[in-house]
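>> Question from a student workshop board

For tomorrow's exercise we were told to take the sequence and the ligand below, predict the bound structure, and bring the output to class. My setup keeps failing. Could a helper post the expected result so I can at least see what it should look like? The ligand is beta-D-glucopyranuronic acid.
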Amino acid sequence: MRRIFQCNLFILLTFFFTFTVPVQAEDGYDLWLRYPPVVEPKLRKAYQQQLGDIVVEAASPVLVAATSELQRGLGGLLTKPIAVGKKLTNKALVIGTPANSPLIASLNLSTRLAVLGNEGYLIEQTQINKRDVTVIAANSDVGVLYGSFQLLRLLQTQQSIKKISYTSVPRLQHRVINHWDNLNRVIERGYAGLSLWDWGTLPDYKSQRYVDYARINASLGINGTVINNVNADPRVLSDQFLQKIAALADVFRPYGIKVYLSINYNSPRLFGDLETGDPLDPRVAKWWQERTKKVYEYIPDFGGYLVKANSEGQPGPQDYQRDHADGANMLAAALKPYGGVVFWRAFVYHPDIGDRFRGSYDEFKPLDGKFADNVILQVKNGPIDFQPREPYSALFSAMEKTNMMMEFQVTQEYFGFATHLAYQGPLFEESLRTETYAKGEGSTIGNILEGKVFNTQRAGTKHTGMAAVINPGTDRNWTGHPFIQSSWYAFGRMAWDHHMSAEAAAEEWLRMTFSNDKKFIEPVKKMMLSSREAGVNYRSPLGLTHLYSQGDHYGPAPWTATMERADWNATYYHRAAKDGIGFNRTQSGSNAVAQYPQILAKQYADVKTVPEDLLLWFHHVSWDHKMQSGRSLWDELVHKYYEGVEQVRSMQHEWDALESFIDAERFAQVKALLKVQERDAVIWRDSCVLYFQTFSGKPIPTGYEQPKHDLEYYKTLARTRYVPEPWHPASSSRVLK
Ligand code: BDP
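>> Workshop helper replied:
Here is what the output should look like for this input. Compare the format with yours to find the bug.
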């Protein structure tokens, strides 16, 4: 009996594991670098036949990194061991530059490589000495590394590489991620655990996580990382920390990633060396020269400084009656001998400005042309602050003689933290493709960033770039919500090529992160592409903005009205009253529209031509205002809030149907988080609709589910709500001061 039972149990278990557990357990750690076997048998065979051993004739650290990634990736994808050697073999994958590979040099690629610059690459199937080979060639080792990741990506996404002839060049120079990590390892607006940088064990212990972090970024072509918070702790420039940071830089270097540091403008004072930080005081300039020299002694290829000055309480040149250009240029001079740059942030809004929207433009526009050529102005995509939808920051179309770079946010500070699904690709795409008309048609933000629109930038010194604030931490899957990985991915790919669509980035990410099965990809891609708009709809549709509880940026509190600074109040932004809602930024209001090029200024200023999704950014309109749908503004607003909730519910339904396609762990996590998101979306909707109703005096149209609670309930909830944010503002710099 027992034997029969055991036998049956065995059959049962075999059946169970073969048929009901189709995919391995996954924890998200490998992100899009998982390299599982290519499932499609024909394709796998074709790849196996085309790609043999790796031939690499030099051994620089970057080439070693490229080779080991190829070995790991091809080994996994093709399920065969991949040998590495120097001698040409049949079907070899030959990698290198003409300078370090005689085999590549023999192909006479110089004309074709000439246009690829320092970081571009070429992947080609060809012949060397009558042998069939595939080559990854570039002008530099880092180009070869990027080409290696691209070849792997083609295989991971199941593209044909037969007769491949593929080249790629990044459109932007500085492709940088910004960490908001404090030295106490708490990450400002982080939501995915503690900072990755374990200062206690550095420089002696270099965790494998640092290497994997570098691999992840290099796979996207990211070439710089600012490792600490813009609200910077001055100790980051101390010898103690520089030693530790140098160890990180050593790990990142083979992956083409430079380290940058956020600095505190008052460092000379906070170090106790001087009693001033005045940029025009020669002692201050000397202090920075000497500190910068020290930095380069530790990190010879150091990238430069990121500076948040005279913004939200941070010190800056204005404390000494100097302007931003004086402040930035002094640092730029200290970095210049080493080829370093200053990323100077434009995120400023003085308390005395009438309209916060205008703040940054009004301060920086008069300084156009005054910045040193190694200063790059880093501007958030919108004029306020990473809101779910903003019009573009008018600085992009106004600063003709200044190097400019974009600052996006992958961290979901205003999108439900690491709890909500909110793929940021559509926001990046919308922003990069915005037509500004600065120099006629084609003056998109992407083209401006690429340096194609203003040719007044001084020749030969043009810097271009894109940055994103990013939240990876010690959470096993790096980002908290698994789908925040997709925004990291999209950012990197779009920083390389701003023409890439959000859809294409989503598809690549899904294929590499989950599955190549169309039946999985199509519905999830749809979810992802609608998720940002859902977030706009249930929080702040039609151009509303900043309705959050002050400080937490998570839940709604549109009634906030008693904060000491006007622009800390939600009422400042929405201006709801009996007569209507919205902020008048036309000539009869703050006239912020005038900051845009004429065509747009006109379009935005006219209530009939302003895009409806920006309406309340620019106009105060009556509750009865007729919308394109034929509904009144009030009805449309209600409609949008309800639509947002329904969009989350459809994401839930879509996801529930996909259980069989992926591993149980990631499936269950996303399912649970979508449930929380639905709960939060309802709270957002009901809080806002009930509150705005106190002004409109109109009913929620029939057919919509009625809020389960009254407004008082939601107000109490906002006061007592648990906010899933480990961040608190006690950065050490504040303690030091
Ligand atoms: C805001 C954040 C704040 C940052 C600031 C910035 O709430 O924590 O310090 O931006 O970008 O969005 O400097």
